[in-house]
């Protein structure tokens, strides 16, 4: 899912990349590669940094850097976005191209997948057109061996004209050859000892390049390959001119000599019937042909059951008949494990945290602190924090690793594949499915994950509708109400299983609302045609359980928990003040609840419930505790500790099964939490879209509650 503290924090947006050398002699190395080839694994193994690695394409959106050293050199490795080409059709391709061309890299390591080398060589050949200082790292050699694929690395190196080394990056010792190759390349920066393969294009293209290249060499030489730049100018790359002006201080198209040569070269192409799209097709076809030629005789394949197993699994997991049922079963299974496994740890954690509360109370008494200070800090701020931690931490510590295991095993791209068709019908992109999956853990993370969507329109669609799937903070409310009113509070395996199935049904409703709102927006405010979506289905892999557990806890669970706690603390103070400040013999909390009650009744709720949702804006986890506190007229959050007692309290205050359904509907569809809204503002840069992201689910939830309440009252 790609959610880490360093990669998706609120401060990671548009911060740029500054190379941090520890010594002037440090060599800068760009680490490039297709998505899902193990590029980030190579980076982690060499640098020792614990950057998150995921098993679905397009994960590495932002660049990362780290340091490693050999006896000869120290290297600053820059992990640039995964990309299939350097033709700048997407943000990832543009970032990768810009860094390789203008980032000042001393060398480029292109990581390839040994199981599908010919496709990966497309990127290698494009990189060789920019710089001769290239090392090809053929990763996943162990998987290739299991699939019956044998590679002649020496022959590949001779044909490409640059070092080619094999590796299995999960075993760090296999990367020794890569560091040795880097030393050789950086020791010969001019490439005098290398003769990189030059792709030969159709004669008409070569003639056009020959007409343009002398003028380009004269005006833009000394750092950029004139042949590559001539190809880009003929291609008409709209992003290149701005980069050249920013990096080199000049735009070749503004030079009369270059402009005249370009006109002449394009006229030559036009005379042969070669326009913009036709030119690109010829270039791509030549690259593919050259890659196939390099692999001819150097990549030997024999049939192997390992590959057949992948195909059998894909027939099960991506078929129209079984794909969706398997998705639902896996989702229900994750929820069942989360519900079952989180109960006991939550109780223990709550006991421990409230034991600390008692000790804090004793400390305040010992210090003779004023009662109001103890109430505000301990019963207000600390108690709310304790609630958030005890309720959120255990389920997230189970949910995130389970979801990450599916990601690491290669299943999440299959989810995107399965959901591409319904998203296409909504004029959206199948990648939105991956963002939606992130939203189950944290809607803020799901919003940040929308960066993987190339189209600005489709990215905005995904951002605006991400809140329709419930996050981890809303699960406690949904689970508690389902258990109390529809399952029974007795507990047991059957109870948790039934809760998981009902919760899955609620989730399916949220997904259906996501489709509906996406289609509504795509037909009104955000009209457009869905963009093309090419998704590589990675091979199934054995998850790295240790790494998954470690990174899920530290980079996901604690990161999300920390953000929730940061906004819950001031909320605790506000709630305590409202519950303890009285006006006319009643607390401010009760006055506000009475004021909201008429509106709440239209929604099938009451004023206390609606007020709890409003006060739960910083953290959804505190909605139910606020309801309990208001009903019991307590001055601080309270925990009944038993669902049967809680149901009795709710029933005494007028709750019925219909109230529970309306509350669940509103919990499923209402405004995002404060963290999510701040993230939306950061990602969109617009208060207008942020306001719409809050209004859209709220309006949908209000209408759903009103319709349900009206139907219940109609049938008596």
- Strand fraction equals 5-15%
Overall outline: elongated
Proportion in helices: 55-70%
Give the radius of gyration: 29 Å
Strand count: 10
Question: How would a crystallographer describe the biggest sheet?
Answer: 6 strands, mixed
Give the uncertain stretches in residue-range form: 1-16, 50-61
Mean pLDDT, to the nearest integer, reads 82
Tell me the structural class: alpha/beta
Number of domains: 3
How far apart are the first and last residues' alpha carbons, in Å?
46 Å
Major sheet: arrangement of strands: 2-3-1-4-5-7
Count of helical segments?
29
Task: Please explain how this structure is put together.
- With 716 residues, this protein is of the alpha/beta class.
- The chain has three domains: 5-187, P-loop containing nucleotide triphosphate hydrolases (Rossmann fold), CATH 3.40.50; 203-301; 323-527 and 546-715, no CATH class.
- The chain has 29 helices and ten strands.
- It has helices at residues 5-8, 39-47, 91-102, 117-130, 141-146, 153-160, 176-187, 203-220, 226-235, 240-248, 256-271, 276-295, 305-317, 323-366, 371-409, 412-425, 432-441, 443-449, 456-465, 475-487, 493-523, 545-580, 588-602, 607-615, 623-631, 643-652, 657-668, 674-684, 687-715; strands at 27-33, 64-69, 74-79, 107-113, 134-139, 149-151, 164-166, 299-301, 582-583, 586-587.
- The chain has a six-stranded mixed beta sheet, sandwiched between helices. A two-stranded antiparallel sheet has the order 6-8. Strands 9-10 form a two-stranded antiparallel sheet.
- A hairpin with a 2-residue loop joins strand 9 and strand 10.
- Helix 14 packs antiparallel against helix 15 and helix 17 packs antiparallel against helix 18.
- The longest helix is centred in the middle third of the chain and has 44 residues, at 323-366.
- The model is unreliable at 1-16 and 50-61 (pLDDT under 50).
């Amino acid at each position: 899912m790609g959610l880490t503290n360093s990669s998706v924090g609120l401060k990671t947006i548009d911060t740029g990349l500054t190379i941090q050398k520890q010594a002037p002699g440090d060599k800068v190395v760009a680490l490039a590669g297709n998505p899902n080839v193990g590029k980030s694994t190579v980076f982690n193994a060499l640098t020792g940094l614990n950057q998150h690695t995921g098993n679905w394409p397009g994960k590495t959106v932002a660049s990362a850097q780290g340091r490693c050293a050999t006896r000869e050199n120290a290297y600053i490795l820059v992990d640039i976005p995964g990309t299939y080409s350097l033709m700048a059709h997407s943000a990832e391709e543009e970032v990768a191209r810009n860094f390789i061309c203008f980032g000042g890299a001393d060398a480029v390591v292109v990581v390839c997948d040994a199981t599908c080398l010919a496709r990966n060589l497309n990127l290698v050949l494009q990189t060789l057109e920019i710089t001769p200082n290239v090392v090809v790292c053929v990763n996943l050699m162990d998987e290739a061996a299991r699939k019956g694929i044998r590679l002649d690395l020496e022959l590949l190196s001779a044909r490409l004209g640059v070092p080619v080394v094999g590796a299995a990056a999960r075993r760090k010792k296999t990367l020794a050859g890569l560091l040795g190759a880097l030393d050789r390349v950086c020791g010969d920066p001019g490439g005098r000892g290398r003769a990189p393969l030059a792709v030969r294009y159709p004669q008409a293209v070569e003639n056009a390049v020959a007409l343009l290249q002398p003028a380009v060499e004269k005006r833009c030489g000394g750092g950029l390959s004139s042949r590559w730049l001539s190809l880009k100018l003929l291609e008409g790359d709209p992003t290149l001119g701005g980069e050249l002006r920013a990096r080199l201080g000049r735009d070749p198209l503004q030079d009369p000599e270059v402009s005249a040569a370009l006109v002449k070269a394009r006229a030559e192409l036009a005379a042969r019937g070669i326009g913009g799209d036709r030119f690109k097709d010829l270039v791509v076809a030549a690259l593919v042909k050259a890659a196939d030629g390099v692999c001819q005789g150097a990549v030997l394949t024999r049939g192997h059951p390992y590959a057949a197993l992948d195909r059998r699994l894909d027939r099960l997991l991506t078929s129209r008949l079984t794909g969706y049922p398997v998705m639902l079963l896996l989702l229900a299974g994750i929820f069942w494990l989360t519900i079952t496994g989180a109960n006991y740890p939550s109780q223990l954690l709550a006991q421990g945290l409230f034991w600390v509360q008692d000790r804090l109370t004793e400390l305040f008494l010992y210090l003779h602190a004023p009662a109001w200070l103890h109430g505000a800090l301990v019963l207000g701020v600390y108690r709310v924090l304790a609630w958030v931690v005890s309720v959120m931490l255990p389920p997230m510590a189970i949910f995130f690793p389970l979801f990450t295991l599916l990601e690491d095993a290669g299943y999440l791209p299959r989810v995107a594949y399965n959901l591409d068709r319904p998203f296409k019908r909504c004029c959206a992109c199948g990648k939105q499915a991956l963002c939606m999956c992130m939203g189950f853990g944290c809607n803020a993370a799901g919003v940040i994950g929308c960066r993987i969507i190339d189209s600005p329109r489709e990215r905005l669609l995904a951002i605006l509708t991400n809140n329709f799937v419930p996050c981890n903070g809303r699960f406690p409310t949904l689970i508690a109400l389902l258990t109390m009113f529809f399952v029974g509070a007795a507990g047991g395996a059957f109870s948790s299983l039934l809760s998981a199935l009902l919760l899955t049904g609620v989730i399916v409703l949220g997904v259906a609302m996501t489709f509906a709102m996406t289609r509504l927006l795509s037909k009104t405010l955000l009209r457009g045609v869905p963009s093309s979506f090419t998704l590589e289905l990675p091979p199934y892999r054995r998850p790295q359980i240790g790494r998954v557990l470690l990174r899920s806890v530290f980079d996901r669970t604690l990161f999300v928990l920390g953000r929730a706690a940061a906004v819950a603390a001031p909320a605790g103070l506000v709630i305590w003040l409202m519950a303890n400040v009285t006006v006319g013999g009643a607390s401010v909390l009760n006055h506000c609840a009475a004021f909201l009650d008429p509106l709440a009744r239209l929604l099938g709720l009451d004023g206390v419930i609606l007020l709890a949702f409003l006060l739960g804006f910083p953290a959804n986890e505190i909605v139910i505790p606020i309801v309990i506190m208001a009903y019991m007229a307590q001055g601080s959050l309270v925990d009944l500790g038993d669902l049967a007692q809680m149901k009795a309290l709710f029933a005494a205050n007028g709750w019925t099964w219909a109230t529970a359904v309306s509350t669940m509907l509103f919990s499923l569809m209402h405004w995002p939490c404060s963290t999510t809204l701040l993230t939306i503002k950061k990602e969109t840069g617009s208060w207008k879209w942020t306001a719409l992201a809050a209004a859209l689910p709220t309006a949908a939830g209000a209408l759903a509650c009103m319709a349900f309440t009206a139907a219940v009252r109609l049938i008596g």
